[in-house]
Amino acid sequence: MDATVAIVDGGGANIASLRFALARLGREGVLTTDAGVIRAASHVILPGVGAARAAMDKLREAGLDTLIPQLTQPLLGICLGMQLLFEASEEDDTRCLGILPGTARRFEAAPGRPVPHMGWNRLRRRSAAPLLDGIDDGAWCYFVHSYALPVTDSTLASASYGHDFAAVAGRGNVLAAQFHPERSGTAGARLLQNFLERY
């Protein structure tokens, strides 16, 4: 296994920001759909922006829907990429990768609480985990999403937008952040550093 950080190319935006964040930590992120590169990488990141069904279709076309659940190295899902690691999304009734249990459900809009949820929100730590080392309880992170996972046994930290939802999750080698660490300042940089150095 080499030191490559493979970024799964699902057609999402914000890849340049993610690669720049990795470069600041001394690591190069390689954008790829090549199964061999992904298998050989030391760490794999599954980012995502957009619709769940379109993202899953792209993964299936590349044969990555069967590869990703088999990975044994550290795997980090970001934003939509987090949701894809779970069983399903209400968005277009989409079956996802099924690595973690749960279904992403759409937020209900309310006065003063538009959907998508967009902006800074605080993390509430729910479990000790190396991924959260050095990140304060109550740290501010940047979110952009319309769907979210419920708080379950795999939730490491939650946030609240009308109700509590999973902001960080993890089990074994599979880790996930609903917020964008590459856009979340010190807390986001620390989460990426922890992912690269502690797993």
Task: Provide a compact summary of the structure.
The protein has 199 residues and is an alpha/beta fold.
Describe the overall structure.
The protein is of the alpha/beta class and 199 residues long. It has a single domain (5-198), classed as Rossmann fold, CATH 3.40.50. 25% of the residues lie in helices and 32% in strands. It contains 6 helices and 14 strands. The protein has helices at 15-24, 35-40, 52-61, 64-67, 80-84, 185-198, and strands at 5-8, 29-32, 43-46, 75-78, 86-89, 94-95, 100-106, 117-122, 124-125, 140-145, 147-148, 155-160, 164-171, 174-177. β12 and β13 form a beta hairpin.
Annotated CATH architecture: 3-Layer(aba) Sandwich
Query: What is the CATH level 1 assignment?
Result: Alpha Beta
Considering the protein shown, what is the CATH homologous superfamily?
Answer: Class I glutamine amidotransferase (GATase) domain
Task: Report the β-strand fraction as a percent range.
Answer: 25-35%
Low-confidence stretches: none
Order of helices and strands: EHEHEHHEHEEEEEEEEEEH
Number of helices: 6
CATH-assigned fold name: Rossmann fold
Keywords:
alpha/beta, Rossmann fold, 6 helices
